[in-house]
Write a structure and sequence with these properties.
By secondary structure, the chain is mainly beta. The chain has a single domain (32-63, 73-173), classed as Immunoglobulin-like (Sandwich). The protein has helices at 2-15, 33-37; strands at residues 42-45, 48-58, 79-87, 97-106, 109-114, 116-117, 130-137, 146-155, 161-173. Strands 1, 2, 3, 4, 5, 6, 7, 8 and 9 form a 9-stranded mixed beta sheet that branches. The longest helix is centred in the N-terminal third of the chain and has 14 residues, at 2-15.
Length: 175
Amino acid sequence: MRALEALVIAFAGVTGCGGSPPPSPAAAPIPTVSGLRAVPLRAAVGSRSFTLESYTWLNLEIRVVPDDSVGLVPPNRPLNVLFWLRPDGRNTAFAGIQMMRGYVVWGDSIWSDSVSPHSPTSGNARPGTMAGGFRGGPLWMLRDDSADVVIEIRDSISKQAAWVRAPRVEVVHAE
């Protein structure tokens, strides 16, 4: 019975007991093409600065993906981005750095998705970097095109945010 009472109290706390809902945080403005293209090639967060290296590819392999699969990219969303955040100077610590969102800018189009950290493997390891990526992007790019890749990073310690850009990243076709 105590478990039920605790559940009711927790539910009432979450729903606000019928009162007015808590104020929602202000939504971040939606980035524009010109705004993303103006993002610097070096991001400063606190006393640290970072640059970005990226590899972008189209996976045009035809395959059937079950609807209930988790983590697989549907064949009609083949754009993939892998990137490496590299600290500049002597400060090589990544403590508190979080990769939040990634953007691909091509022509007048923007594709954005949340970023996932990647564990370095033999094929994509870059010593001294923090790896991440996002995938499942649209098929509006062509092989051998180039695009700008922009990553939003935040420092959970100083609460500062910054953006960093890798310009003219070549889009390759995965063999």
